[in-house]
Amino acid sequence: MFMPYNNAKSVAASPGVQRKVLAYDEDMMVVEFTFDADVKLPLHTHPHKQASYVLQGKLEFTLGEEKFIMCKGDTLTIPPDIPHGAEPLEPSVVIDVFSPMRKEFV
To answer: Which domains does the chain have, with CATH numbers?
Structure first.
């Protein structure tokens, strides 16, 4: 699936969080999240594998019992069903890859 960036629709995922699905098939999905500063993404789980790449900004990321400060260029992977969440410390943009795709995002 080819998706020109300008054709991808941005939707409000929650207050202060925008979600833009960039490309996907049944096995994988690439999503851009834009966060306002000081918006808390609470701990949550899902059955998908996830990889996250910080494109811009700085976030405090919680993965299980660990906390990380993630900055531009940092990445992490999240196994399925592991509690995780994030709190942007400044306006931030994160690219997430999910496997399989998140059907609830389309």
So the answer is: 13-105 (2.60.120.10)
